[in-house]
Amino acid sequence: MKHLFGPVPSRRLGLSLGVDLLPFKTCTLDCVYCQLGPTTCLTLAREERVSTAEVLEEIRSLSEKGSDRVGHGDGGAGAAGAVEFDYLTLAGSGEPLLHRGLDEIIRGAKEAVDKPVALLTNGTLFFREEVRREVLEADLIIPSLDAATAPTFKRINRPHPDLSIDDLLEGLVRLREEFSGEIWLEVMLVKGINDGEAPLIAEAAERIGAERVQLNTVVRPPADPVQPLSPEEMEEMLEFFSGAEVIADWGRDLSKTTEVLIRDLLTRRPCTLEELSSLSGLHRNEILKYLEVLEAADEIRRLRHEGRLYFRAREG
């Protein structure tokens, strides 16, 4: 399928079937920790980024195979049987809020499959009333909050020049007032960049009033060479956040067949994320989970060449 990917295992969402609504790396931010690499299209312009009709056609095809089943293997429906999923998740290659017509996709998805719809977002456009209105029928929204002050916002999220931390915070507060579903607020903590601002971020999170506050750190290959907090340091961060939980996952149990495939590809030659996706037939977000496991096991390493991020197997 062109717009659906996975299902991929998620600590928070079980098996998540992704819906990608953006051309690769179209976003309102250029976060230093982004697992997809640097933002190539930094914008606030909302438009129909992909064909809404095509997306809905793919989602509706799921009900033809069973209300909660989709083909999985080599990137295509029906290619290797069917697997169940727990959430249909709007996510993927950029910021989903930049796609105009989210309400139509959410409504169509809920009519087509009997599964909850989640939205993964950086939350930057919720200060716009039209954006909040388009997401009201979702079941779960997971926005991000990585800063509480303008200097840290610029340092960690590198936003579009017309975005401010005040707009971001106000938008999340207004979303909580208007949205009847659950909000799980994710806070990405990066060593030496925003961890010192944790008490202020905690105060902002309290003001937003999300059902859950989830603390994360850099466990997947980031856009810039930034450092994660250790498990012990993450536990210490809980002192600042009321009722929060740590969701950073330093290891995963994934398909051994796919893991071997990716390891073999990287043994032959260094590859970018895009090249691995093309060679394996898997979506970039799926590939990242395997890279995370292989890097944690010290089986692969990263290198940069002419501004591009490559992965290669360690020798010996």
From TrEMBL:
Cofactor: [4Fe-4S] cluster
Residue stretches making up the Radical SAM core domain: 7-257
Keywords: 4Fe-4S, Iron, Iron-sulfur, Metal-binding, S-adenosyl-L-methionine
UniProt superkingdom: Archaea
Alphabetized SUPFAM superfamilies for the sequence: Radical SAM enzymes, Winged helix' DNA-binding domain
InterPro entries: Aldolase_TIM, GTPase_Obg, rSAM, rSAM_sf, WH_DNA-bd_sf
GO molecular-function term, one example from the UniProt record: catalytic activity
Protein name (record): Radical SAM domain protein
Organism listed in the record: Methanothrix harundinacea (strain 6Ac) (Methanosaeta harundinacea)
